[in-house]
Amino acid sequence: MSVSAVAIGVPTGLAGWKLLQSKTPADFKAFTKDPVLQRDIAYLREKLPTKLTAQELLADRRLQAMVLQAYGLDKQIGFDALMRKVLDSNPDDDSSTAARMVDYRYRQIAADLNYGGISIPEIPAVLSSTTLQMEGVMTGQTFTSFNGTMGGVKVEGVNLEGMTKRSDIAAALQAAFQKADGGRGDITVQALGVKIIFSDAKGRGKSDFTFIADPDSTPRAYLLSESAGSQRVAGSGGPKVTDSATIDAIVAKFTQARFEESLGQSSDSLRRAVYAKRLLPQIANWYSVIADRNLATVVQAALGLPDSFGQIDVDRQKTILEQRMDIADFKDLAKLGKIIERYVAQSSIEEAKAFASGGLSSLVQPVYWGRDSFDGSAAAALLSTVMTR
């Protein structure tokens, strides 16, 4: 159960709206410490990174509900067939289901999760190696030291005095390279007969070796072969649910949506106002406003349009809205603030009247929250049709 607006210290009406202008959900400790919210966030963080396909995400009904609520798509909870088509859409394909939806939230969730995005698999590293032939190493005839670079890792002054076995020389060189490489085991040095083989599992490139011996001694090392290899190329595209930044962004969206839900328990006007302030600046066409019942309610009330306005043909609604204001005004925070403040002032009067008459319960948590302005489960398909006219 969410924490109510009264419990977290937000008054209703314009006083509450003005307070919310300088606050974020994190400022309301009763809300952020709500154990139900904390459990849901922990579940989201744990489970979402494991859902590597849209089908797996949708099969987890609890997780599905939280993710869709984060994007304001509560109305589609349980409509798995449509949401799978949306989530499996390639965000870069203008003919995909998500791209054809007039409501930008479908395109946003498809792009953010990227289940349908082009995926380029990882190209593993190809081993780089250098093989030397080592001759003349015997008792009294040994190298004194070694300097070299392998895979960009440099060692100097490795002591080889007294080492007559190639295996001992290889072990000393491997220990030096691995220490210089931060203790990692990617660089190996092996003795094979009269050969010494240097390898780098990361494929970081060619080598440069210098074995130092007394001028009159017999030890010599000759280059036999060299392979540059290639470094790993990370995969790209595909699901982003394993990306921590994506998870953090969805958690933030979910937390904000739950905060707005808590406001709605005492004042649905404040809930709609905060919701509209967050979403309207991202709206690029009037159909997206018309399609979202809550945005439509705010805009219609602010423009003085009657409740019956939402019942007329959608194209006629679009024409009237265009005549009343420029949709670009939503991106002007000052103009948007006035629009929402006008809505809050008007709706607060209605809430006060309802409270006085004992009807406040009819205004709180309305059954239509989150639904499209069009009734029925075919709403999303209708939106797609409207956009492609």
TrEMBL record:
Pfam families hit by this protein: DUF1217
Tree of life domain: Bacteria
Listed InterPro entries: AGR-C-984p-like_sf, DUF1217
Keywords, sorted A to Z: Cell projection, Cilium, Flagellum
Gene3D superfamilies reported in the protein's UniProt record: AGR C 984p-like
Protein name: Flagellar protein
Protein's organism: Teichococcus deserti
